[in-house]
Design brief:
The complex is a heterodimer of chains A (87) and B (755).
Chain A: E1 2-5, E2 19-22, H1 27-37, H2 41-45, E3 46-47, E4 50-51, E5 55-59, E6 62-63, E7 77-82
Parallel strand pairs in A: 1-7
Antiparallel strand pairs in A: 1-2, 3-4, 5-6, 5-7
Chain B: E1 4-5, H1 23-28, E2 43-49, E3 55-61, H2 63-67, E4 71-76, E5 87-89, E6 94-96, H3 97-104, E7 109-110, E8 116-122, H4 125-132, E9 136-141, H5 148-152, E10 166-167, E11 170-171, E12 178-186, H6 189-194, E13 198-206, E14 218-223, E15 229-233, H7 238-249, E16 256-260, H8 276-286, E17 290-293, H9 296-302, E18 309-317, E19 323-335, H10 342-349, E20 357-366, H11 380-398, H12 402-408, H13 428-436, H14 439-442, E21 450-459, E22 466-472, E23 478-482, H15 490-502, E24 509-513, H16 530-557, E25 564-567, E26 570-573, E27 576-582, H17 583-589, E28 598-603, E29 611-621, E30 628-638, H18 645-664, E31 695-701, H19 722-734, H20 745-752
Parallel strand pairs in B: 1-31, 2-17, 10-12, 15-16, 19-20, 23-24, 30-31
Antiparallel strand pairs in B: 2-8, 3-7, 3-9, 4-8, 5-6, 10-11, 12-20, 13-18, 14-15, 14-17, 18-19, 21-29, 22-23, 22-28, 25-26, 26-27, 29-30
Classes of the chains: A alpha+beta (87), B alpha+beta (755).
Chain lengths: 87, 755
Amino acid sequence: MAIVYIPALMRGLTGGAEKVTVPGSSLRQVIHNLEAVYPGMQARLLQGDDLSPALSVAVDGEVVRLGLLAPVGEQSEVHFLPAMSGG
Amino acid sequence: MANKVLVRQEFKVVGTRPIRHDGTDKVTGRALYGGDFSLPGMLYGKVLRSPHAHARILSIDTSAAEALPGVRGVVTAKDLPRPEEGIADVGEGAVNLRFLSDNILASNKALYKGHAVAAVAAVDAHTAEAALALIKVDYQVLPAVVNVREAMKEGAPILHESLRTDAQGQKGTTPTNIASRIQFAKGTLEQGFAQADVVVEREFETATVHQGYIEPHNATGLWSSDGQVTIWCSTQGAFTVRDLVSQILRYPVSKIKVVPMEIGGGFGGKTVVYLEPLAALLSRKTGKPVKLVMTRTEVFEGTGPTPAASMKVKMGATREGKLTAAEASFAFEAGAYPGSAVGAGCMCAFAPYDIEHGKIDGYDVVVNKPKAAAYRAPGATQTGFAVESVVDELAEKLGLDPIAFRMKNSAREGTRRIDGPIFGVIGALDCLEAARASDHWSSRLEGPNRGRGVASGFWFNIGLQSSCTISVNADGTVNLVEGSADIGGTRASIAMQAAEVLCLRAEEVKPTVADTDSIGYTQVTGGSRTTFATGWAAYEAAHDVLRQMKERVAKIWEANPADVTYEEGVFGVKGDPKMQMAFRELAGKLNHTGGPIVGRATVDPKGQGGAFATHIADVEVDPETGKVKVLRYTTVQDAGKAVHPSYVEGQMQGGAVQGIGWALNEEYFMTPGGTMANTSFLDYRMPTTLDLPMIETVIVEVANPGHPFGVRGVGEVPIVPPPAALANAIRRAVGVRMTRLPMSPGAILKEMGTV
């Protein structure tokens, strides 16, 4: 199962847990399964049917470029980070 | 000074120093910039800007201006389509459409002095300027707030009545200037500080500074009678301009063509639009091409500076020199609309170190200043100044060598950052080792009021989308077309990667930066991504050329394409050494063997790898005037693989100089009412070649496993260490710890107790 690191200000939804494990082979599935266990998570991570534009997601240390389609491995680490751009 | 080469692969073209393809045009003045551009019948535009930092716009009367002979059109926010509420993805990032539109032409409120309110097109610039004076704007002046801490207080003037704090997806309930709050936490902070023998806690401030590109913003727009719009402009991203103009004007991207002219510097400040929608709008209104060029004052007052910041940092370490905990709070000024780089600043702050327990809070705060824009490693310089000053103070209190202390705590492959992810292959420790081994570090610095400082820095770099095509010419050269504006020599660094694959010389690849109708989607030249990502596209396109060339050889020789080889610029067939054909020979046969060959590639890569740098600064402080003289300065940086070392060195030197200016001189002097008092380069003092010694460079090459040639971006991280390196040097020179930028003569004398 993927290890999902919960953003600090969202840990109220996970009872304070810094990381949780959920199944899913894509980011969409991971977030869907996260919502099933920790209601309210999806509303904080998605805008409509897509990832919130305020966020970027790192899977195994790399910021993914496929949005919710990004593949997630059995032992992957998933991090939700602020979106950023360069100069 | 010798570079430190850790990459194992040897290349023929990558890593050499050919003359840049655009060099002759640039040094002879033939290169065409936006200011050089003109079209028959062209009109000239000027922008009316708010004289108030915060004011409600009650009415705008343009009738007298429109009646002035020579005036052909006037536009206000009423000429812009009413923006839809919501966030749009424009490729590199998300934008709030209402805020985006309001920053082009203010609708109900002016939110900073210099905020565009109306624009005029006339037969010449003087007439357009005269018309501006005839536009009557009725303002209700409101109290302004131009400081981040003041803007965060209860009772501060509110810029946007609808703004609510977004705390990682949870909205606040009351009007505020705090647009967003983020937090990162790792481990148990209390436990970490309990393990510490020494704790240092300090507060820091940095001023608003500007990117300071030499070439001001400019745009020429032509709205043809068939509805096609063409915009010629100075930009870091032609496709970004197309996307933003499309959103602002609610007009299809297919009807907008953006032609990127040469660019006289951007540094992040030209990843957004200001004049481009106005040029298009005025052209639509007048039926003529319209050109707008900003003055320097307009650039300072009306375009994105980098945020001022207010910061607190607390760090602890054991007496053996092991960092145990780090805590920080960073509040950034976003300017008039949300969106500072506080998130990136937070994530970069402690990245050079392996720290078990940490917590970082970030606040994005709107104030009555121009909307902040990106500036080289956005956010990292501010937070790096604070963190690297505290790291240095810890080393000092522990009696440890500042480089040895940093090495003991250095991030390395496998280190988990406070914001969560684990580092892959990085060169943080290698940069420190190279700095320690440098001639500069081992040299003696003697004399009164002299000191040496060191600081490290980190920037993520980004990947994003790029496209490239390569056509084979009959004489054996190739034409390469790409969409990345060339700011720092990227025509050369991209062409060289294609040349490496094709076994050609760099000069045999002719690169062209194309308009948005002539190349596939390519995102901005920013985030230190162009040599990495567009270079990767060139690498793939070159392989596409080779694949087709091998097929052609196989066709000519009636051989199996899988058996065709290509080595040292010569095609052959496995098992038959007599069969040989040079690239050039085959190129000459294309017309009669199946037609032209064009390779193409699009990429959207990850794996860009982060960049680390360590800088060493020697200074002498004049105790009578407080002036800081930089005696010697060395930059050490991991480039992954330096495709063209001269241009890597140029980026390292340029970034360092901008960081030195930010550290010692540069500052928006704001009146309490929100007016910038120093809107020229005479009063906004940037360093020149007369102010600084030659910046010495040491390129470290720790190959990035995420790129075919091991490339990492190099353009941004060199701006991160200078403020802290200089503050640490000043501390050793005269014993004062500077916690506010700029460290100007007056500020240093004040800290020394002289005034």
